[in-house]
Amino acid sequence: MGRAEKVVLAYSGGVDTSVCIPYLKEEWGVKEVITLAADLGQGEELGPIKEKALTSGALVSLVADAQVSFMNNYAFPAIQANALYENRYPLSTALARPLIAKLLVDAAEEYGADAVAHGCTGKGNDQVRFDVSIAALNPNIKVLAPAREWGMSREETIAYGERFGIPAPVKKSSPYSIDRNLLGRSIEAGPLEDPWTEPLEEVFAMTRAIADTPDEPDYVEIGFAKGIPVSLDGNAFSPVALVSQLNERVGAHGIGRIDMIENRLVGIKSREIYEAPALLVLIQAHRDLESLTLTADVTQYKRGIEETYSQLVYNGLWYSPLKGALDAFVQQTQERVSGTVRVKLFKGNATIVGRKADNSLYTPDLATYGADDQFDHKAAEGFIYVWGLPTRVWAEKLRG
Q1: How far is CA 62 from CA 11, 22, 35, 126, 237, in A?
Q2: How many helices (H) and strands (E) are present in the chain, helices listed first?
Q3: How many Å apart are CA 29 and CA 142, to the nearest integer?
Q4: Alpha-carbon gap, residue 143 to 10, rounded angstroms
Q5: How big is the CA angle at 145 (ends 144 and 150), to the nearest 5 degrees?
C-alpha cells in the first residue's frame, strides 16, 4: 500500500514506534523513514533510542532538545491560563503533543517528506492531538497512524518486530502505561483499570509517600513576572531549572498526585493517575497572585475562559482560532500579575501562606478594621438601598 515516499515518524523507542518503522516500509511501501525523538525532560538517555531507531531500519534518527520551548511556549502559557482540565488535571502530557506535532511538521519540511506518522492507537486522546495539530500546521501533509490500523495484539506486535531484528523487551513488561516529561508523569492501565483499586506506591516516581516525607515544612517563595514563574526564594532560574528544582522540592513532601476518572474526547471514561508536583503548585500560586493583582470582574470572567482553554488544549485544539483568541485575552490579563507567593510544603499539602506585589490592589487602609480605617461607612447605606432595590420591588409584587 503506497501511501508516502518519505515519512517523519514520532519516535519514543518503545515497541509500537519501533515496529512502525519496518511496518511502514513493508506493508505500506514507504521508502524512507526518518525518526524524531523529542527530549522533553523525560529523564532518560536518548542516545540508545537514537541507535535503536537506526537498528530498526530508520534512514535518519533525529533527537530534538525541546525542553526550553516546552516550558516557554506551552507550559508557561498554560500556567498563565491556570489550565486544569475538569478542574483537576494540569495537562502535563497533553501540552507536549502540539510541540511534538510542530517538530514533526518542521522536520518534514526540512527533509522533504510527504508524510508524518505517529504510534497512537485509536482509543486515546493523543491521536486527536497529533492529527489535528499537524493539520493546523500543514493541512496538505499526510498523517499516517499504523498502530491505529494494524490490529495486532502486543504479543503479535513484538513478534512482528522480531522478524525485522527488533529485540523483544528484555524484562517482563510493566502492566502500566507510563508517559513522562519535565512537567510530570501519567500512569494508566494494568490494575488501575479498576476504579476501586488503590494505586500501589510502585507507580509513583516524582512524589514520596506521606510516611516518607520530612517532619519539617519547606517554605518556598515563587516569584512571577507577568504571570510567568521566574524565581525561587529570590533566586532567578531558567525555565527548565526552575521547574526541575520545584519538582524535587514539592515531590519530596508528597504533593502532586492526582487520581481521577477522566472524560476522554473519544467518548469513554478512563482512570488516570498523574504526578505533576511543580506544575500544580505553580498554577495554585499563580492563581493566588492573580487574586491580589486583578480586579474582581476580570478574575471572575477569566475563570470561564480558563475552563474553555483547558478543554481546547485537552481536545487537541492548541492551534485553533478560538485558542488563539483566548491567548490574547490571557496575555492582556497578565500585564500586572507580577509578585511573590509564599507556599508551605508539608505532608502532602501545598498551602499558600503569603503573597505580595508592587501593584497589589489590596489596600490596607480600606481593608483594616483598626484605627487606620479609611472606608466611608456612611456610604454603605445608600449603596445597599440601590443594590437591593430590584429584590425589594420583586418581593413587594410577590406579596401583593
Answers
A1: 9, 17, 6, 21, 29
A2: 14, 14
A3: 14
A4: 11
A5: 125
pLDDT greater than 60 at residue 172:
no
CB 67 within 8 A of CB 42: no
- Those residues with Cβ within 8 angstroms of residue 129's Cβ, 6 or more apart along the chain or in another chain: 94, 97, 98, 101, 315, 316, 318
CATH code for position 208: 3.90.1260.10
The residues carrying an active-site annotation are 16, 97, 126, 177
- 58: domain CATH number is 3.40.50.620
Full-model pTM: 0.92
103 lies in which domain range? 6-163
Q: Which residue has the cell 519514543?
A: 12
Judgement on whether residues 150 and 11 belong to the same structural domain of the protein: yes
Is residue 204 predicted with pLDDT exceeding 90? yes
Residues 200 and 336 in one domain: yes
351 and 202 together in one domain = yes
**Residue 362 within any structural domain of the chain:** no
Q: Tell me what pLDDT residue 76 has.
A: 98
Three-state DSSP class for 379? helix
Q: Are residues 350 and 239 in the same domain?
A: yes
Look up cell 499516517; give the residue. Answer: 144
Q: How far apart are CA 54 and CA 35, in angstroms?
A: 9
Q: Does a structural domain hold residue 135? A: yes
In the block, which residue shows the cell 498554560? 78
Q: Look at residue 364 and tell me if it is in a domain.
A: no
